[in-house]
Design goal:
403 residues; alpha/beta; Alkaline Phosphatase, subunit A; 2 domains; five-stranded antiparallel beta sheet; 15 helices; 14 strands; 35% helix; globular
Protein backbone atom coordinates (compact mmCIF):
# COMPACT_ATOMS: atom_id res chain seq x y z
CA UNK A 1 0.00 0.00 0.00
CA UNK A 2 1.24 3.48 -0.91
CA UNK A 3 0.15 6.68 0.82
CA UNK A 4 -0.06 10.25 -0.50
CA UNK A 5 -1.04 13.62 0.96
CA UNK A 6 -1.99 16.21 -1.67
CA UNK A 7 -1.87 19.46 0.30
CA UNK A 8 -3.28 22.57 -1.38
CA UNK A 9 -2.06 25.27 1.00
CA UNK A 10 -4.83 27.76 1.81
CA UNK A 11 -7.16 26.09 -0.71
CA UNK A 12 -10.36 26.44 1.35
CA UNK A 13 -12.25 29.72 1.17
CA UNK A 14 -15.57 31.50 1.66
CA UNK A 15 -18.26 31.98 -1.03
CA UNK A 16 -17.33 34.76 -3.47
CA UNK A 17 -19.98 36.84 -5.23
CA UNK A 18 -17.95 37.00 -8.43
CA UNK A 19 -17.98 33.19 -8.54
CA UNK A 20 -21.75 33.04 -8.18
CA UNK A 21 -21.49 32.84 -4.38
CA UNK A 22 -19.37 29.73 -4.67
CA UNK A 23 -15.95 29.09 -3.18
CA UNK A 24 -12.95 28.56 -5.48
CA UNK A 25 -13.13 24.85 -4.63
CA UNK A 26 -16.80 24.76 -5.69
CA UNK A 27 -16.20 26.84 -8.81
CA UNK A 28 -13.05 25.11 -10.07
CA UNK A 29 -13.34 22.25 -12.55
CA UNK A 30 -11.99 19.26 -10.61
CA UNK A 31 -13.31 16.14 -12.34
CA UNK A 32 -10.51 13.91 -11.12
CA UNK A 33 -10.90 14.78 -7.45
CA UNK A 34 -14.69 14.65 -7.72
CA UNK A 35 -14.45 11.17 -9.26
CA UNK A 36 -12.83 10.02 -6.02
CA UNK A 37 -15.46 11.69 -3.86
CA UNK A 38 -18.24 9.11 -4.21
CA UNK A 39 -15.96 6.38 -2.80
CA UNK A 40 -14.10 8.55 -0.29
CA UNK A 41 -14.56 9.73 3.26
CA UNK A 42 -15.22 13.45 3.16
CA UNK A 43 -15.48 15.63 6.23
CA UNK A 44 -14.18 18.63 8.12
CA UNK A 45 -11.07 18.74 10.27
CA UNK A 46 -9.65 21.30 12.68
CA UNK A 47 -5.96 21.51 11.81
CA UNK A 48 -5.21 24.51 14.06
CA UNK A 49 -5.61 23.77 17.77
CA UNK A 50 -7.51 26.29 19.84
CA UNK A 51 -5.17 29.01 21.09
CA UNK A 52 -2.74 28.73 18.14
CA UNK A 53 -2.39 31.20 15.30
CA UNK A 54 -3.51 29.70 11.96
CA UNK A 55 -0.08 29.55 10.37
CA UNK A 56 1.11 27.07 7.77
CA UNK A 57 3.66 25.88 10.33
CA UNK A 58 1.09 24.74 12.89
CA UNK A 59 -1.38 23.47 10.30
CA UNK A 60 1.14 21.44 8.28
CA UNK A 61 2.61 19.92 11.43
CA UNK A 62 -0.92 18.75 12.22
CA UNK A 63 -1.61 17.27 8.80
CA UNK A 64 1.80 15.57 8.86
CA UNK A 65 0.72 13.77 12.01
CA UNK A 66 2.34 15.82 14.78
CA UNK A 67 0.43 17.51 17.60
CA UNK A 68 1.59 21.17 17.64
CA UNK A 69 0.85 21.35 21.35
CA UNK A 70 3.68 18.88 21.91
CA UNK A 71 6.30 19.99 19.38
CA UNK A 72 5.72 23.53 18.06
CA UNK A 73 8.44 26.05 18.96
CA UNK A 74 7.88 28.69 16.26
CA UNK A 75 7.90 29.06 12.48
CA UNK A 76 11.31 30.46 11.66
CA UNK A 77 13.42 27.63 13.16
CA UNK A 78 11.74 25.19 10.78
CA UNK A 79 12.83 27.38 7.86
CA UNK A 80 16.30 27.85 9.35
CA UNK A 81 16.83 24.11 9.49
CA UNK A 82 15.73 23.79 5.87
CA UNK A 83 18.38 26.22 4.64
CA UNK A 84 21.10 24.51 6.65
CA UNK A 85 21.56 26.75 9.68
CA UNK A 86 23.06 24.90 12.65
CA UNK A 87 21.06 26.27 15.57
CA UNK A 88 22.26 26.29 19.16
CA UNK A 89 19.69 25.63 21.90
CA UNK A 90 20.01 29.26 23.02
CA UNK A 91 19.49 30.73 19.55
CA UNK A 92 16.25 32.46 18.67
CA UNK A 93 15.36 32.68 14.99
CA UNK A 94 13.09 35.12 13.20
CA UNK A 95 11.62 35.01 9.72
CA UNK A 96 13.00 37.92 7.74
CA UNK A 97 10.81 38.89 4.79
CA UNK A 98 11.92 41.29 2.09
CA UNK A 99 8.84 43.52 1.82
CA UNK A 100 7.60 46.56 -0.03
CA UNK A 101 6.57 49.43 2.23
CA UNK A 102 5.03 52.71 1.11
CA UNK A 103 7.33 55.72 0.79
CA UNK A 104 6.40 57.94 3.73
CA UNK A 105 9.53 59.47 5.29
CA UNK A 106 8.75 58.35 8.83
CA UNK A 107 9.08 54.56 9.04
CA UNK A 108 6.14 54.17 11.39
CA UNK A 109 3.85 56.02 8.98
CA UNK A 110 4.41 53.52 6.19
CA UNK A 111 1.97 50.85 4.98
CA UNK A 112 2.59 47.23 3.97
CA UNK A 113 2.18 47.21 0.18
CA UNK A 114 3.55 43.74 -0.50
CA UNK A 115 4.80 41.06 1.90
CA UNK A 116 6.80 39.41 -0.94
CA UNK A 117 8.30 42.43 -2.77
CA UNK A 118 6.47 41.39 -5.89
CA UNK A 119 7.70 37.79 -5.61
CA UNK A 120 11.29 38.97 -5.87
CA UNK A 121 13.64 36.44 -7.47
CA UNK A 122 16.00 34.41 -5.33
CA UNK A 123 19.00 35.82 -7.22
CA UNK A 124 17.97 39.44 -6.55
CA UNK A 125 17.05 38.68 -2.95
CA UNK A 126 20.34 36.96 -2.16
CA UNK A 127 22.29 39.94 -3.42
CA UNK A 128 20.21 42.25 -1.21
CA UNK A 129 20.56 40.02 1.86
CA UNK A 130 24.33 39.76 1.28
CA UNK A 131 24.46 43.56 1.07
CA UNK A 132 22.52 43.90 4.34
CA UNK A 133 24.52 41.15 6.03
CA UNK A 134 27.77 43.03 5.50
CA UNK A 135 26.30 46.11 7.18
CA UNK A 136 23.88 44.78 9.82
CA UNK A 137 25.39 41.55 11.15
CA UNK A 138 26.75 41.86 14.69
CA UNK A 139 27.98 39.71 17.56
CA UNK A 140 24.33 38.94 18.32
CA UNK A 141 22.42 39.25 15.01
CA UNK A 142 23.23 37.14 11.94
CA UNK A 143 21.33 37.25 8.65
CA UNK A 144 21.02 34.17 6.44
CA UNK A 145 19.73 34.14 2.86
CA UNK A 146 16.85 31.88 1.92
CA UNK A 147 14.71 31.88 -1.19
CA UNK A 148 12.70 34.61 -2.91
CA UNK A 149 11.43 36.94 -0.18
CA UNK A 150 11.89 34.42 2.69
CA UNK A 151 15.06 34.79 4.79
CA UNK A 152 16.21 34.26 8.37
CA UNK A 153 17.72 36.23 11.26
CA UNK A 154 19.40 34.33 14.09
CA UNK A 155 19.73 36.02 17.48
CA UNK A 156 22.48 34.61 19.69
CA UNK A 157 21.31 34.03 23.29
CA UNK A 158 17.92 35.30 22.22
CA UNK A 159 14.76 36.04 24.15
CA UNK A 160 11.22 34.96 23.32
CA UNK A 161 7.98 36.76 24.11
CA UNK A 162 7.67 39.42 21.40
CA UNK A 163 4.64 40.72 19.55
CA UNK A 164 5.57 40.23 15.89
CA UNK A 165 3.01 40.65 13.12
CA UNK A 166 3.06 38.39 10.04
CA UNK A 167 3.38 40.80 7.10
CA UNK A 168 0.80 38.94 5.01
CA UNK A 169 -1.76 39.78 7.71
CA UNK A 170 -1.49 43.53 7.07
CA UNK A 171 -1.33 43.89 3.29
CA UNK A 172 -2.40 47.41 2.26
CA UNK A 173 -2.62 48.43 5.92
CA UNK A 174 -0.55 50.85 8.03
CA UNK A 175 2.29 49.24 9.96
CA UNK A 176 1.87 51.57 12.95
CA UNK A 177 0.70 49.55 15.92
CA UNK A 178 2.02 46.34 14.32
CA UNK A 179 5.74 46.95 14.81
CA UNK A 180 7.87 44.70 17.06
CA UNK A 181 7.35 45.01 20.78
CA UNK A 182 8.75 43.10 23.73
CA UNK A 183 12.20 42.65 25.31
CA UNK A 184 14.13 43.21 22.06
CA UNK A 185 11.37 45.05 20.24
CA UNK A 186 13.32 48.30 20.00
CA UNK A 187 16.39 46.49 18.60
CA UNK A 188 14.26 44.62 16.05
CA UNK A 189 12.57 47.84 14.96
CA UNK A 190 15.94 49.57 14.63
CA UNK A 191 17.19 46.67 12.49
CA UNK A 192 14.18 47.04 10.18
CA UNK A 193 14.59 50.83 9.98
CA UNK A 194 18.28 50.53 9.11
CA UNK A 195 17.46 48.02 6.40
CA UNK A 196 15.02 50.47 4.83
CA UNK A 197 17.66 53.19 4.67
CA UNK A 198 20.20 50.81 3.14
CA UNK A 199 17.82 49.30 0.58
CA UNK A 200 16.19 52.52 -0.56
CA UNK A 201 18.64 53.31 -3.36
CA UNK A 202 20.16 49.90 -3.98
CA UNK A 203 20.77 49.27 -7.72
CA UNK A 204 18.53 46.20 -7.68
CA UNK A 205 15.63 48.24 -6.35
CA UNK A 206 16.27 51.04 -8.82
CA UNK A 207 16.19 48.48 -11.62
CA UNK A 208 13.00 46.90 -10.29
CA UNK A 209 11.26 50.26 -10.08
CA UNK A 210 12.38 51.12 -13.62
CA UNK A 211 10.91 47.81 -14.80
CA UNK A 212 7.57 48.54 -13.11
CA UNK A 213 8.22 46.04 -10.28
CA UNK A 214 7.92 46.56 -6.56
CA UNK A 215 11.17 47.23 -4.69
CA UNK A 216 12.35 45.22 -1.71
CA UNK A 217 12.74 48.33 0.44
CA UNK A 218 12.73 46.88 3.96
CA UNK A 219 13.07 43.66 5.92
CA UNK A 220 10.24 42.58 8.21
CA UNK A 221 10.88 40.39 11.27
CA UNK A 222 8.31 37.90 12.58
CA UNK A 223 7.74 34.24 13.48
CA UNK A 224 10.23 33.89 16.34
CA UNK A 225 11.15 30.46 17.68
CA UNK A 226 13.77 28.05 18.99
CA UNK A 227 15.12 24.77 17.66
CA UNK A 228 12.42 22.07 17.82
CA UNK A 229 12.58 18.29 17.85
CA UNK A 230 10.23 15.89 16.08
CA UNK A 231 9.88 12.15 16.41
CA UNK A 232 11.25 10.41 13.33
CA UNK A 233 8.36 9.79 10.89
CA UNK A 234 9.41 6.21 10.12
CA UNK A 235 9.70 5.38 13.81
CA UNK A 236 6.37 7.05 14.56
CA UNK A 237 4.33 5.58 11.71
CA UNK A 238 6.38 2.71 10.29
CA UNK A 239 6.49 4.25 6.79
CA UNK A 240 9.38 5.58 4.72
CA UNK A 241 8.37 9.11 3.79
CA UNK A 242 9.30 11.93 1.46
CA UNK A 243 8.34 15.60 1.16
CA UNK A 244 7.85 17.70 -1.96
CA UNK A 245 7.57 21.48 -1.52
CA UNK A 246 9.06 24.71 -2.79
CA UNK A 247 8.72 26.23 0.69
CA UNK A 248 11.50 26.13 3.29
CA UNK A 249 9.02 25.75 6.13
CA UNK A 250 7.65 22.45 4.83
CA UNK A 251 11.10 21.16 3.91
CA UNK A 252 12.23 21.99 7.45
CA UNK A 253 9.45 19.90 8.96
CA UNK A 254 10.39 17.05 6.64
CA UNK A 255 14.08 17.26 7.58
CA UNK A 256 13.28 17.28 11.31
CA UNK A 257 11.01 14.26 10.80
CA UNK A 258 13.77 12.37 9.01
CA UNK A 259 11.96 12.28 5.68
CA UNK A 260 13.58 12.49 2.27
CA UNK A 261 13.36 15.91 0.59
CA UNK A 262 12.41 15.35 -3.05
CA UNK A 263 13.46 18.23 -5.30
CA UNK A 264 11.41 19.21 -8.35
CA UNK A 265 12.84 21.44 -11.11
CA UNK A 266 10.66 24.50 -11.65
CA UNK A 267 8.94 24.36 -8.25
CA UNK A 268 8.27 28.00 -7.31
CA UNK A 269 5.72 28.13 -4.49
CA UNK A 270 3.19 30.00 -6.66
CA UNK A 271 0.72 29.33 -9.46
CA UNK A 272 3.54 29.08 -12.02
CA UNK A 273 5.04 26.09 -10.20
CA UNK A 274 5.75 22.78 -11.91
CA UNK A 275 2.59 20.94 -10.82
CA UNK A 276 3.16 18.04 -13.23
CA UNK A 277 6.76 17.71 -12.10
CA UNK A 278 5.69 17.32 -8.49
CA UNK A 279 3.38 14.46 -9.44
CA UNK A 280 6.06 12.78 -11.57
CA UNK A 281 8.70 12.94 -8.83
CA UNK A 282 6.21 11.68 -6.23
CA UNK A 283 5.09 8.78 -8.42
CA UNK A 284 8.66 7.71 -9.14
CA UNK A 285 9.59 7.82 -5.45
CA UNK A 286 6.53 5.77 -4.52
CA UNK A 287 7.18 3.15 -7.19
CA UNK A 288 10.88 3.01 -6.26
CA UNK A 289 11.15 2.70 -2.50
CA UNK A 290 9.03 5.17 -0.51
CA UNK A 291 5.76 4.27 1.21
CA UNK A 292 4.52 7.82 1.67
CA UNK A 293 4.89 11.21 -0.04
CA UNK A 294 3.65 14.57 1.21
CA UNK A 295 3.07 16.86 -1.79
CA UNK A 296 2.74 20.48 -0.72
CA UNK A 297 1.57 23.20 -3.12
CA UNK A 298 1.73 26.77 -1.92
CA UNK A 299 -0.05 28.32 -4.91
CA UNK A 300 -3.64 28.62 -3.57
CA UNK A 301 -2.34 30.27 -0.40
CA UNK A 302 -0.25 32.84 -2.27
CA UNK A 303 -3.25 33.66 -4.48
CA UNK A 304 -5.45 34.04 -1.40
CA UNK A 305 -2.99 36.51 0.13
CA UNK A 306 -2.88 38.46 -3.12
CA UNK A 307 -6.68 38.48 -3.50
CA UNK A 308 -6.18 36.76 -6.87
CA UNK A 309 -9.40 34.83 -7.51
CA UNK A 310 -8.56 33.79 -11.06
CA UNK A 311 -5.26 32.16 -10.22
CA UNK A 312 -6.58 30.55 -7.05
CA UNK A 313 -9.17 28.74 -9.17
CA UNK A 314 -6.47 27.96 -11.74
CA UNK A 315 -4.19 26.51 -9.04
CA UNK A 316 -6.92 24.21 -7.77
CA UNK A 317 -7.62 23.03 -11.31
CA UNK A 318 -3.92 22.33 -11.85
CA UNK A 319 -3.78 20.28 -8.66
CA UNK A 320 -6.69 18.26 -10.00
CA UNK A 321 -5.43 17.72 -13.54
CA UNK A 322 -1.64 17.81 -13.14
CA UNK A 323 -1.20 16.17 -9.73
CA UNK A 324 -4.17 14.02 -8.70
CA UNK A 325 -4.94 12.57 -12.15
CA UNK A 326 -1.41 11.35 -13.02
CA UNK A 327 -0.91 9.96 -9.51
CA UNK A 328 -4.15 7.97 -9.61
CA UNK A 329 -3.54 6.78 -13.16
CA UNK A 330 0.11 5.93 -12.51
CA UNK A 331 -0.51 3.92 -9.35
CA UNK A 332 -3.45 2.10 -10.90
CA UNK A 333 -1.37 1.27 -13.99
CA UNK A 334 1.33 -0.15 -11.73
CA UNK A 335 -1.33 -2.21 -9.88
CA UNK A 336 -0.20 -0.49 -6.70
CA UNK A 337 -2.95 -0.10 -4.08
CA UNK A 338 -2.92 3.35 -2.47
CA UNK A 339 -4.59 5.77 -0.12
CA UNK A 340 -4.74 9.50 -0.80
CA UNK A 341 -5.58 12.39 1.51
CA UNK A 342 -6.51 15.67 -0.20
CA UNK A 343 -6.89 18.77 1.95
CA UNK A 344 -5.70 22.31 2.67
CA UNK A 345 -3.73 23.08 5.79
CA UNK A 346 -5.96 26.07 6.60
CA UNK A 347 -8.27 28.38 4.64
CA UNK A 348 -6.85 31.56 3.11
CA UNK A 349 -10.03 33.38 2.08
CA UNK A 350 -9.88 35.94 -0.70
CA UNK A 351 -12.13 38.21 1.38
CA UNK A 352 -9.60 38.61 4.21
CA UNK A 353 -6.35 37.77 2.36
CA UNK A 354 -4.88 35.96 5.32
CA UNK A 355 -5.15 32.66 7.16
CA UNK A 356 -8.13 31.72 9.31
CA UNK A 357 -8.48 28.80 11.70
CA UNK A 358 -11.80 27.43 10.39
CA UNK A 359 -11.94 23.64 9.96
CA UNK A 360 -10.86 22.50 6.50
CA UNK A 361 -12.53 20.02 4.14
CA UNK A 362 -10.66 16.75 3.63
CA UNK A 363 -11.05 13.82 1.26
CA UNK A 364 -9.68 10.39 2.19
CA UNK A 365 -9.67 7.91 -0.68
CA UNK A 366 -8.58 4.27 -0.82
CA UNK A 367 -8.20 2.26 -4.01
CA UNK A 368 -9.03 -0.83 -1.95
CA UNK A 369 -12.01 0.42 0.08
CA UNK A 370 -15.29 2.27 -0.47
CA UNK A 371 -15.96 4.65 2.40
CA UNK A 372 -19.49 5.18 1.13
CA UNK A 373 -20.01 8.90 1.67
CA UNK A 374 -21.52 9.09 -1.84
CA UNK A 375 -20.53 12.74 -2.22
CA UNK A 376 -20.75 14.27 -5.68
CA UNK A 377 -17.86 16.66 -5.18
CA UNK A 378 -15.10 17.71 -2.85
CA UNK A 379 -15.56 21.18 -1.38
CA UNK A 380 -16.41 22.98 1.83
CA UNK A 381 -20.17 22.40 1.63
CA UNK A 382 -20.01 18.73 0.68
CA UNK A 383 -17.61 18.16 3.56
CA UNK A 384 -19.93 19.89 5.99
CA UNK A 385 -22.95 17.96 4.69
CA UNK A 386 -21.49 14.55 5.62
CA UNK A 387 -21.46 15.45 9.32
CA UNK A 388 -18.02 13.84 9.68
CA UNK A 389 -15.73 15.93 11.88
CA UNK A 390 -12.18 15.35 13.06
CA UNK A 391 -11.42 17.62 16.00
CA UNK A 392 -7.66 17.01 15.97
CA UNK A 393 -5.73 17.59 12.77
CA UNK A 394 -2.86 15.26 13.65
CA UNK A 395 -5.31 12.33 13.65
CA UNK A 396 -5.77 12.66 9.87
CA UNK A 397 -2.43 10.94 9.36
CA UNK A 398 -3.58 8.03 11.49
CA UNK A 399 -6.72 7.81 9.34
CA UNK A 400 -4.59 7.76 6.19
CA UNK A 401 -2.07 5.19 7.39
CA UNK A 402 -4.47 2.95 9.31
CA UNK A 403 -4.27 -0.42 7.55
Amino acid sequence: MKYIVVLGDGMADYPIERLGNRTPLQYAKTPNIDALASHAEIGLCRTVPVGFQPGSDVANLSVMGYDPRECYTGRSPLEAISIGIDLAPTDVTLRCNLVTLSDEENYQDKAMLDYSSGEITTEEARELISFLKQRLDSDRFTLYPGFSYRHCLVVKNGILGHELTPPHDITDRPIRGRLPSGPLGAAYLQFMQKSALLLKDHPINRARIAAGKRPANSVWLWGEGTKPTLQNFTQKFGKRGGVISAVDLIKGIGILAGMRILEVPGATGNYDTNFAGKAAVALKALLDDLDFVYIHMEAPDECGHQGDIEHKVYSIEQIDSQVVRPLVEGLNAAHEPFRMLICPDHPTPIAVRTHVSDPVPYLLYSSAQNYGCNARSYDEESAKATGIYCAEGYLLMQKLLND
